[in-house]
Model the fold of this input.
Amino acid sequence: MTLRRYKGSLVAIGALIVLLVYYWLKQPLILSPFGVKLLANQGTTLALAALAQLTVVLTGGVDLSVGAIVSLSNTIAATYMGDSPWSVIAVVLLTLGVGAGAGLVNGLLVAYGRIQPIIVTLATLYIYSGFALLVRPQPGGSVPSYYATTLTGSWGYLPYSLVALLVVACLIRTPIMRSRLGTAIYAVGDNPGGAHMSGINVPRTLVAAYVLGGFFAACAGLFLTAQTTSGDASVGTTYTLNSVAAVVFGGAVLSGGRGVALGPIVAAFFISIIISVLFAAGVSPFYQSVFQGGILILVLMFGNAWTQRARSWLAILRA
Done:
């Protein structure tokens, strides 16, 4: 049962291991404490954005505003965060509230406005991007050095970014997804009609999923702020489609109802470091995007073929 639950994540895990081994052969220093910290910091923002996207995808939707919420959170944190610990705490809570509020707007429009998620979140993408520009028309701002160090530093081979990611994934998301709300989210994504017949309040479940998605996107924005120590209204642009790619690569199904956090998190690190690996391999920057897309397609094709073969063997064994 456990293997079946995580089989969609195995391809992402295997691909990441192969990529890291190749990277290590090209750049042995990646196994140093600094190299491990660099790799961890490089992928954590996308991993958090992938958690945001996964929460919505499980309901059968897709959130195109994830990147915009990351940008908005980044600009708020970098603009209003002062030096005192109380200021940092207040701005972090404000930022998380704004992210959850942005998700709430998405959820209300999808659940009660009866509008397709891709249309709603495409529209709110522009709205939240506009708010980010209002907060910070030009790149800049700052955060206290201890805030950045707390999230992006390391203790030997233990990067603080992985600790932060584990806290969000295991101590916040996992209990929620194992609660009645999590069960309802999976049920709505798998079969909305059946979920309604089972007594699940489908609109409220959708709203809750989008609120959680906005919250996790804000977490990604807060970590990105610690990583860059500044704010930029366009910094989250790439995280929307990359978060969708990480979710699919990690074994989730865009039609909803299937997927676990492990796969998208691992896939996010794969996607985040692949450019560095291509650079280490001597691939020209002009061709890196082409190679990145091609590698993703090949891995996804392999994963799909492996899944189909596993299903065939399972059917034979059952027969």
